[in-house]
Amino acid sequence: MSTALVFVETLDGKIADITYELLDLARRVTGDGGTVTALAVMPAGLTSELGAADRVLWADNPDNCYLPESLGKTLAQAIDQVSPDLVLVGNTAVGMDVATYAASRAGCSTIASVQKVEPAGQGWQVESVILGGKMVATAEVTELTILQVLAGAGDAERGHVQGNPTVETITAAEAAATVYEGLAMPDSTDVDITKQDILVSIGRGIGDKDNIEVVEELAEALGAVVSASRPVIDAGWLPKSRQVGKSGKKVKPKVYLALGISGAPEHLEGMRDADCIIAVNTDPKAPIFDVAHYGIVEDILELVPALTEKVKGA
Ligand SMILES: Cc1cc2nc3c(=O)[nH]c(=O)nc-3n(C[C@H](O)[C@H](O)[C@H](O)COP(=O)(O)OP(=O)(O)OC[C@H]3O[C@@H](n4cnc5c(N)ncnc54)[C@H](O)[C@@H]3O)c2cc1C
Q: Checking CA distances to 243, which of 1, 67, 107, 195 falls within 20 to 30 Å?
C-alpha cells in the first residue's frame, strides 16, 4: 500500500489543470488501497475541487502569494508529516522552483520532465525526457523521490472530482529572504496568437533579430501573425505574448509554419494540435518533422524571401 503526496498548483486564485492531472496519476500509480494526500497552499473555498485526494493539507493563502521559498519549505514539511513514497509536482515554472527547493531540504532526489510513471515491483518505473527531448531516460524509483511531471502524463478530467476529502489545516512556512510584490499579467495589448488562423513561427534558426523582418513580410503576405519559440522571446526579439509552448501559449491555428524550430517537447506542447504543421529546418533529423504534416529541409533565410515573392505574385 503506497502513499503519494501531490503538490497543488494555483494561479490567480484558481487550481491549475496540472494539479488534476497529478491527482489522476497519483490515484493510478498508488493503486487499490493507496492513499493520496494533496498539499494546497491556496485561498479558502477550493478544497472540494480536490475530491480525487483522500486528504488535503491546507494552508490559507488569501492573496495567492507565490513565494517558492515558502512553498518549497512547506512541501518539505509536508513530506516529513506524511512520509509519502512518492511526491508529484507539475513540471511547470512553479513546480520546478518548488520541487528542487523541497528536495534539497527533504534530502531526497527529484526527477524533472517525467512523462510516464508505472508501478513496477516495490516501486515505480519512471520515464523522463532529457537533452531537449532527444532521449528518454528510464529510472527505477524505490525510495522517496519528487517527480516533476509533464502535462499530458495524467488525465485532468478524471482527476477533477468534486468531493469532501479530509482537510487538515496547516501553516505555510515563512519566506525569510523573499517578499511577494504582486502578480504581473502579460501585456494584453498585443495580438492574440491563440486566435489566428495562420501563424508563422520562428525559432533560434532565425539567427539574428534583423532577420525577423523577412519573416514579417511573409506573414503579412499570408495574412498571418509572427509567433516564436522561447529562445527568440528570451533574446528579447519578440514580446512574451508571442511565445508558443509550455511556458507560452497553446495555439491551434489552421496552419502553423515552423521556421528554424527544432521541436523540443516544451514547444510541441503548445502547437501540436494545429490543423496543418509545415516545418522548415536545415536538419532532416529535427524532431519537429515527427509532428509536421509537411516538411522542407532548407535554409529559412533562403526559402522565406522566395516564398514571400511567390505568395505576393499569386
Ligand atoms: C520549463 C521549460 C519551459 C519551456 N517552455 C518553452 C516554451 O513555452 N516554448 C518553447 O519554444 N520552448 C520552451 N522551452 C525551451 C525548449 O526546451 C527548447 O529549448 C526550445 O523550444 C528550443 O527552441 P528552438 O527550437 O527555437 O531552438 P533550437 O532547439 O536551438 O533549434 C533551432 C533549430 O533551427 C534549425 N536551424 C538553424 N539554422 C537554420 C536555418 N538557417 N534554416 C532552417 N533551420 C535552421 C536547427 O537545425 C534547429 O533544429 C522550455 C523549456 C523548459 C525547461
A: 67
